[in-house]
Specification:
By secondary structure, the protein is α+β, with helices and mostly antiparallel strands. It is built from 3 helices and 12 strands; from the N terminus they run βαβββββββββββαα. The chain has helices at about 35-45, 185-195, 205-215; strands spanning about 10-15, 50-55, 60-70, 75-80, 80-90, 110, 115-120, 135, 140-145, 150-155, 160-165, 175. The longest helix has 14 residues, at about 185-195. It is globular and about 50 Å long.
Length: about 220
């Protein structure tokens, strides 16, 4: 966790700006606004810089996904989706294997256009289901849960909406199901959760084989 993203058959894709550095500084990550200042500060202090990726979603247009690993913050914004912000409690130490730094819901704050929502990540153990993340907002519920090595499915109130993939660097891809009717809030939450926690997990039998292999001599 997280795993490599799924093949680029997704309906949402990163723009060219995410794939190339600026002409002035080819080594600089493609960040925007205050993220650029964070990048220079990170170079001086050794901290990981915040990054932004613009995704062109076929259903909801351009969305910006911003990930700040050091501060434990994820922000998703766009003209056609509500603004979603997920933050780790200030002053808490982040864990490297989780992009947002923690799976402890008590240390996380989630807002949708400034209104509080409830987020409840599972602890992440052996099974794929143990890596699920549940959200409750406006009397509805969502779940992002791994269903393959690279990807996780987004479910709203039992309805399967699409497959998200992200390897933990803030880049998110999604493939909406043909028979689904996702809403703008579904998209904003899906992108935010995928960026914050990564997606995908190996099945239990593969984990068991790895554990047995670690116990064998040589």
């Amino acid at each position: 966790m997280p795993k490599d993203p799924a093949p680029t058959t997704s309906l949402a894709k990163n723009t060219d700006g995410d794939q190339h550095g600026s002409p002035e500084d080819p080594t600089r990550d493609n960040t925007h606004g205050d993220a650029g200042a964070d990048a220079h500060e990170g170079e001086e202090t050794g901290a990981k810089p915040a990054v932004e990726h613009v995704v062109e979603d076929e259903l909801f247009g351009a969305l910006t996904v911003r990930l700040d690993v050091e501060r434990g913050e994820v922000t998703v914004s766009g003209e056609r989706v509500p603004r979603v912000e997920l933050r780790r409690a200030e002053g808490t130490e982040g864990k490297d294997h989780v992009p947002v730094g923690t799976r402890d819901g008590a240390l996380l704050t989630l807002t949708v256009d400034g209104a509080d929502a409830v987020i409840d990540p599972a602890k992440g153990r052996l099974t794929r289901r143990s890596y699920r993340v549940d959200v409750r907002c406006a009397e509805r519920s969502w779940r992002l849960v791994p269903d393959s090595l690279p990807g996780s499915r987004l479910i709203r109130s039992g309805a399967r909406l699409g497959e998200f993939s992200s390897d933990g660097d803030g880049k998110v891809l999604v493939e909406w199901h043909e028979d689904a009717e996702p809403e703008a809030l579904d998209a904003a939450l899906g992108y935010a959760l995928a960026a914050a926690f990564g997606t995908g997990a190996q099945p239990l039998w593969m984990t068991a084989i790895e554990m047995i292999g670690d116990l064998l001599p040589g």
